[in-house]
Amino acid sequence: MWLYYVKLGVISLRRNPVLTVLMVMTLAAGVAASVATLTILNGMSGDPIPHKSERLLVPLIDNQAGDRGNVDRDPPSQLTWRDAEALWTAAAASRQTPLWGLGPSIDPGRKDMPLFFTDGLAVGRDFFAMFETPMIHGSAWSAEDDRRGAQLAVISAALADKLFGAAGDAVGKSIRMDGHDFQVIGVFDRWAPIPKYYRLIGGNYFEGSEDIFIPIRAAINLNLDFNGNINCSSSPEEPGMAGMLKSECVMIQYWVEVDDAAQRRAYADYLEAYVREQKALGRFPRELNNRLFDVREWLDFNRVISDDTRTAFWLSVGFLLVCVINTVSLLLAKFSARPGEIGVRRALGASRAEVFRQYLLEAGVLGLVGSVLGLLFTVTILAFVRHFDRNLELVARIDWLTVGSALLVSVLAALLAGLLPTWRACQVRPALQLKSQ
């Protein structure tokens, strides 16, 4: 019987093509707008590493000048090198790593390929285990390499393919970066956590990973150019990068990994003890203002999802509701033109429940047709967003969640729109309709 009702729904849609096209287009437009914005919002707001997001932490220390009072209660979003190095050396957590942005030039040493620039990071060896970088060849450097600042590199498979023809051939080879030779000891697969939570300061939230990673002390020893945000509460006493590293300028992003909530509390206690120790040495004039954010808290603190994105989503939901209301009006017009048909069915023994199921299924068929067109509209909108804003290229992509959302939203919207018209159709009195024929 259900299949029979579906067949009747298809026949009914074909009976009045103009009205059907209007309803399908109305539903498709509402579904496309809401599902496209939902896809982008979901990509922006998802937990990029859910199984350990509560154990990856960002410690912040307030080293701002004391004359600011309570105007700015949030501490700086980065650490000074002297603080990052002290925390890193103390190793009070299970794993820890500083992050130093790089924008190095790469000399391929080939006549067929000119010098080019890429994106990179100077980090500690724990970085790869903490953020689960998918290593496919070789490995990360050792703790001893960290201490001495060895000129070693871990590169992406894309960069390895570009320079050496195959990712597997890169390990052991030399790569020339900013005029210095680095030995490649590891190659990692394509890796693009969304959002790019480990480098929210001075980076694009929704771009792919960097192409090259080197020990942070190698970057410092070689005086490589820093690529990132630098904020200074006072001018460095010495010129150049050497003076910057000794100053109160915040420029280093820092992450730690703990094993559980108890170790997180212990690390917070350690951080407080460190700040009090530095206060005794004449630093940190403001009152104690440490922070310790896990991944989700860090995303919220940096407002990864803008107010404009949230507003756009709710506007699209409002547009979908308008489309549903318009569809209700069109279905009312469609069903109200068929009282004779309904009266005959009721006179032949069909109950109100059976009429309700038939006409509600007809609305469901309308939703299925609208979902197909809405999905096509959604793909078009997301393609336009990717072309218009390269920063959203990784989040504005069609996936099974998008497909399922489009189907579900369209059918539910059609069924919702069909409730009132279907209920009105069930109120037809068969005697009056038969008498008028």
UniProtKB/TrEMBL annotation:
InterPro entries listed in its UniProt record: ABC3_permease_C, MacB_PCD, Macrolide_Exporter_MacB
First-listed, main subcellular location of the protein, grouped into a coarse class: membrane
Bilayer topology term: Multi-pass membrane protein
Pfam families according to UniProt: FtsX, MacB_PCD
All copies of domain MacB-like periplasmic core, residue ranges: 20-273
Domain ABC3 transporter permease C-terminal: 315-427
Cellular localization per UniProt: Cell membrane
Entry GO MF terms: transmembrane transporter activity
Signal peptide (UniProt feature, chain positions): none
Keywords, alphabetical: Cell membrane, Membrane, Transmembrane, Transmembrane helix
GO cellular component entries: plasma membrane
Residue ranges crossing the lipid bilayer per the database entry: 21-41, 312-333, 359-385, 400-420
Keyword Phosphoprotein annotated: no
Name of the protein: ABC transporter permease
Lineage start: Bacteria, Pseudomonadati, Pseudomonadota, Gammaproteobacteria, Lysobacterales
